[in-house]
């Protein structure tokens, strides 16, 4: 669903800027949600069992004619809002189907909802959601004239027509899709994304740390953006804690403020549990405690991704007497607002709470007023952890950022944890991305307060004072130099230094006998390999110790798979899926920690990838239906056809709802697949023979050129079958020319037949596979789905066992190559070259004219 909506958005928005188009798409998607919820509340309270949506809408119209305000008050009592029958999203769809659609009806619907909420709602949660400043349906960017705008808006409305927002909201399927779209729009929006979106991986780091640090009933984001940080924290809380959580947020940009409220409501947050304000966080403090005027409300958690280094932030001419800044007694410089945001958040942090904020690295080392603020925060013992992240994580800036964790209840002698995670990422296009394993390692390091050379360090107060309160991470964590120092004696006289071989710790721990048997001492302290690296690698990987360890891991993983196989097959509640995922990720780490020299975070990533690629979507589908029902269900396979104005989506076949067509072919149509592969192999051979014949025909005055030259289309490097047949008519039978022409004709005919046969076989196999989906047995579904979900885990984990061994064998090979040329060999080569030069000089004859 996520990808379909995003593809639809891209097809429909044309040249409109993504940061602007998102307001239209997400706004109309939200209005569909409001309409679906209204109809569902009407059905539930009226006791209607009808499943046909059109008939439910008709019943709603009739009931409203009869009961009017009484009905709308009832629905509002359930939901906190309502949509009148004539303004339902479903009424727009009916107008479209009847050819009576008008943009003005959409405008009227949105305006009516605005007016209704202004009169009846006790809170501000719905007011202004569809204001013209956010959703201006007369904007020429939607189309240069009314007809074009009408067509584009109509297509956008149709994009959501088949989505049941009520069903999708269960378990946050709808909310996840909304978050996905916000993230995709952020990537497309570039620098404009910074005002509304925090990358998911950064949100995860902050949210997991906050949840693992404090008991959370209330949470505050003073620069709330789309609300993604608040929701990420919510996702890591357990059932009842999620229901009780109260969300506070403030956002300066009005369109983004509207997006925040929609996002929270779509994620099932009750209006009474959210307090979101449209305002400037720095200009005026908010929220204040109504019972204690001039005192800020305190929260269990504060999370924030403010705009970086805002210039001229102090527009209200605030003084250090502002209670938010009294804590340090220094006003942040007007040229950079980073500490202004930090101090605002810290002011609202409860005594037992945790705060996480993303800021540029400059806050760690800049001097002046910022240096004084940093010193006083450290002296008050509020700075708990500093996490350095990679650059290019955000779409709106390429600079590296840091996450600061602050707490007010730290022990007096507790050190500051420094984490350098700036080198743990992968590149995706122009962006750097933290992998799931990178996030897990950061969070585990925080929870365990663990130290690791080159990655994390616990900085004592004495160290910090010695560094004059400069918190720049490289002052506390040195990067590891993995280069092995050169050995002069080894360069001069050959041999690998034994000390370097001793440092191959994994090989020495697991297979010392294999390594020792492959070495001989050439002189004291220097060794030489007696086997090739290829032979040594084979001996290492087939050693009994390695094979026994591999078998032990396989046994543990098989039990692990069996355990979660049963849970995934029987999942009946979408809300249980996250718990299963977290349990699988935690347990794979525990399993791999039992085995030395295996990186448990690499194993964590294997399972995280499987969840990302298949398990999340499959589990949601199964939870809303049934494992075997979905296993025998097929859904349309859609493809984009045409281009420009003719671009459209068309069905091109069927695919299994959860069972992959390719696995059905592999396991249930092996003979048919083998026949196609055999013909494909023969086709490749024919193509190769034809290519060889074409190249021969290009050689001037060759027999092939004489026979086939006139039948060759040199521009396409191919023979024309018609030309070959024409030449055959005039060629003397049994001549060389006749032989070459006949060969070419035969190959061309065979190629045509192979292509025709393969096309038919592939079509037949495709149709048989699509039909077979609906008749799969339970046993067949089990086999296919087990392979889909778990088929790659054991091979990948086994490679993790081999990985450190292979890495050290590579080092051994590099050492062998490094010291293969000695002083003696270089001198011998030099003498050889000198003699060759002398011989050449002796042969040269200088002639005199």
Structural description of this entry:
With 849 residues, the protein is an alpha/beta fold. Among the domains are: 1-195, Ferritin (Up-down Bundle), CATH 1.20.1260.30; 668-775. Helix 10 packs parallel to helix 16, helix 23 (544-569) packs antiparallel against helix 33 and helix 24 (577-593) packs antiparallel against helix 25. The longest helix is centred in the last third of the chain and has 37 residues, at 736-772. The protein starts with a helix and ends in a 6-residue tail after the last helix.
Write the layout of secondary structure elements.
Layout: H1 2-13, H2 18-46, H3 53-67, H4 69-79, H5 89-97, H6 103-120, H7 146-159, H8 165-169, H9 173-189, H10 200-213, E1 218-221, H11 228-235, H12 239-244, E2 246-251, H13 254-266, E3 274-278, E4 288-289, E5 292-296, E6 299-304, H14 338-347, E7 349-360, H15 368-379, E8 383-388, E9 401-407, E10 416-420, E11 426-428, E12 431-433, H16 436-448, E13 456-459, H17 461-466, H18 488-493, E14 496-497, H19 498-502, H20 505-510, H21 512-517, E15 519-523, E16 526-529, H22 533-541, H23 544-569, H24 577-593, H25 600-623, H26 627-631, E17 634-641, E18 648-656, H27 661-668, H28 670-697, H29 703-708, E19 712-713, E20 718-719, H30 721-730, H31 736-772, H32 778-790, H33 793-818, H34 823-843
Parallel strand pairs: 1-2, 1-6, 2-3, 6-7, 8-10
Antiparallel strand pairs: 4-5, 7-9, 8-9, 10-13, 11-12, 14-16, 15-16, 17-18, 19-20
Helix pairs in contact: 1-7, 2-4, 2-9, 2-13, 10-11, 10-16, 16-25, 22-33, 23-24, 23-33, 24-25, 25-33, 28-31, 30-31
């Amino acid at each position: 669903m996520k990808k379909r909506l995003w593809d639809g958005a891209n097809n429909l928005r044309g040249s409109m800027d993504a940061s602007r188009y998102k307001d239209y798409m997400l706004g109309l998607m939200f209005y569909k949600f409001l309409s679906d919820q209204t109809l569902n509340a009407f059905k539930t309270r009226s006791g209607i069992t009808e499943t046909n949506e059109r008939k439910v809408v008709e019943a709603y119209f009739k009931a409203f004619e009869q009961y009017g305000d009484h009905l709308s008050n009832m629905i509002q009592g359930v939901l906190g809002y309502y949509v009148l029958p004539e303004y339902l999203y479903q009424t727009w769809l009916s107008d479209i189907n009847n050819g009576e659609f008008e943009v003005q009806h959409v405008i009227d619907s949105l305006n009516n909802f605005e007016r209704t909420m202004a009169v009846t709602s006790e809170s501000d949660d719905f007011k202004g959601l569809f204001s013209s400043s956010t959703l201006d349906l007369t904007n020429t960017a939607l189309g240069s004239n009314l007809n074009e705008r009408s067509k584009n808006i109509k297509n956008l409305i149709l994009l959501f027509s088949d989505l049941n927002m009520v069903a999708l909201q269960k378990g946050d399927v709808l909310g996840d899709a909304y978050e996905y779209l916000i993230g995709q729009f952020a990537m497309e929006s570039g620098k404009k994304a910074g005002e509304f979106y925090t990358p998911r991986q950064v949100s995860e780091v902050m949210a997991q740390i906050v949840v693992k640090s404090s008991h959370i009933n209330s949470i505050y984001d003073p620069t709330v953006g789309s609300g993604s940080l608040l929701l990420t924290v919510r996702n890591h809380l357990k059932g009842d804690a999620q229901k009780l959580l109260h969300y506070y947020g403030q956002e300066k940009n009005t369109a983004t403020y509207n997006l925040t409220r929609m996002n929270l409501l779509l994620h099932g947050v009750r209006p009474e549990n959210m307090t979101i304000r449209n305002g400037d966080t720095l200009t005026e403090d908010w929220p204040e405690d109504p019972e204690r005027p001039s005192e800020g409300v305190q929260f269990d958690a504060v999370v924030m991704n403010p705009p970086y280094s805002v210039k001229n932030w102090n527009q209200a001419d605030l003084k250090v007497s502002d209670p938010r800044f009294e804590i340090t007694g220094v006003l942040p410089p007007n040229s950079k607002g980073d500490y202004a945001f930090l101090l605002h958040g810290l002011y609202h942090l409860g005594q037992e709470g945790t705060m996480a904020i993303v800021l540029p690295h400059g806050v760690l080392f800049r001097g002046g007023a910022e240096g004084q603020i940093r010193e006083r925060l450290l002296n008050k013992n509020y700075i708990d952890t500093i996490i350095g992240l990679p650059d290019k994580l955000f779409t709106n800036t390429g600079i590296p950022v840091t996450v600061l964790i602050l707490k007010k209840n730290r022990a007096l002698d507790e050190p500051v944890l420094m984490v350098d995670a700036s080198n743990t990422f992968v590149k995706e296009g122009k962006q750097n991305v933290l992998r799931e394993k990178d996030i897990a390692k950061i969070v585990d390091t925080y929870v365990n307060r663990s130290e690791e050379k080159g990655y994390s360090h616990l900085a004592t107060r004495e160290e910090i004072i010695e560094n004059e309160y400069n918190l720049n991470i490289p002052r506390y964590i040195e990067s590891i130099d993995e280069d092995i120092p050169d050995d002069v004696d080894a360069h001069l006289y050959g041999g690998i230094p034994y000390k370097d071989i001793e440092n191959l710790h994994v090989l020495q721990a697991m297979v010392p006998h294999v390594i020792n048997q492959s070495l001989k001492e050439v002189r004291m302290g220097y060794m030489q390999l007696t086997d090739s690296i290829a032979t040594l690698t084979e001996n290492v990987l087939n050693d009994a110790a390695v094979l026994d360890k591999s078998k032990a891991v396989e046994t543990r993983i098989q039990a692990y798979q069996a355990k979660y196989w049963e849970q995934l097959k029987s999942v009946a509640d979408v809300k249980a899926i996250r718990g299963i995922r977290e349990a699988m990720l935690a347990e794979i780490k525990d399993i791999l920690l039992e085995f030395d020299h295996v990186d448990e975070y690499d194993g964590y990533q294997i399972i995280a990838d499987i969840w990302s690629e298949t398990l999340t979507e499959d589990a949601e589908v199964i939870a809303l239906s049934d494992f075997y029902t979905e296993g025998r269900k097929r859904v349309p396979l859609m493809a984009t056809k045409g281009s420009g104005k003719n671009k459209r989506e068309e069905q091109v076949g069927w695919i299994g709802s959860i069972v992959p067509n390719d696995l059905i072919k592999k396991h249930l149509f092996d003979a048919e697949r083998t026949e196609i592969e055999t013909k494909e192999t023969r086709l490749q051979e024919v193509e190769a023979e034809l290519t060889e014949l074409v190249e021969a025909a290009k050689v001037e005055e060759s027999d092939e050129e004489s026979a086939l030259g006139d039948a060759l289309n040199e521009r396409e490097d191919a023979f024309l079958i018609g030309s070959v047949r024409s030449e055959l008519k005039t060629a003397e039978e049994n001549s060389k020319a006749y032989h070459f022409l006949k060969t070419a004709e035969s190959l061309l005919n065979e190629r045509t037949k192979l292509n025709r046969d393969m096309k038919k076989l592939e079509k037949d196999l495709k149709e048989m596979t699509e039909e077979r989906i609906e008749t799969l047995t339970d046993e067949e579904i089990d086999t296919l789905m087990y392979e889909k979900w778990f088929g790659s885990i054991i091979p990948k984990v086994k490679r993790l066992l081999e990985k450190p061994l292979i890495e050290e064998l590579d080092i051994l090979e590099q050492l062998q190559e490094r010291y293969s040329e000695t002083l003696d060999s270089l001198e011998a080569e030099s003498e050889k070259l000198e003699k060759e030069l002398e011989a050449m000089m002796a042969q040269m004859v200088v002639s005199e004219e």
